[in-house]
Amino acid sequence: MTSPSISSRSLSFIGFIACALLIAIALYFQYIEGLDPCPLCIFQRVAFTSMGVVFLASFLHNPTNVGRKLYGFLASVCGVLGLGIAARHVWLQSLPADQVPECGPGLDYMLEVFPFSKVLETVFKGAGECAEVSWTWFGISMPGWSLIWLAVLTTLALMLILRKS
Fold it and tell me: Do 27 and 49 form a contact (C-beta atoms < 8 A)?
């Protein structure tokens, strides 16, 4: 007796819904709870949004083998980039107070004034605002939860690649 497996289309739908809910939660914390996102938080949101768009396209397109693998690859790339950003953010939050980088200019200002490569360099160096832990659940900070969810969603994307049919 074989166990029923979930379809690739269903996996894509689950991935899209998870990404949409996570972005909705982030917006709730920003606009209802008043927790303004730091630059690394914003880049993590970009990763979730990008993955969500790829999962939605995969769900709507319902591709065959090659297309499914392509969508899985694109979502995986977004996920791995997001994992790197979230891991950096968690690392910054784990630094002792005397090793935390100083706060820099806001992301809006940097995007207006600096070339994009300089913005990325500055953001990934981190800043004091990125090291601040302003919310936890079960002892895990928001970037920690992002790291967990990005790992789950990247695994889901890899499942699209590795499926036989």
Answer: no
User: What is the sign, positive or negative, of the torsion defined by CA atoms of 59, 64, 70, 76?
Assistant: positive
The answer to whether 157 and 103 have CB atoms below 8 angstroms apart is no
The pLDDT tens digits along the chain (165 residues) read 444 578 999 999 999 999 999 999 999 999 999 988 888 888 899 999 999 999 999 999 989 889 999 999 999 999 999 999 999 889 888 877 776 666 555 666 677 777 777 776 666 665 556 677 787 789 889 999 999 999 999 999 999 999 876
Q: How many CA within 13 A on the CB side of residue 134? A: 14
What does the alpha-carbon distance between residue 35 and residue 32 come to, in Å, rounded to a whole number?
8
H or E segment and range at residue 24: helix 8-31
Exposed/middle/buried for 149, CB within 10 Å: 0-12, 13-18, 19+?
buried
Distances (CA, A) of 19 to 12, 25, 66, 86: 11, 10, 23, 15
Q: What's the pTM value of the predicted model, to 2 decimals?
A: 0.81
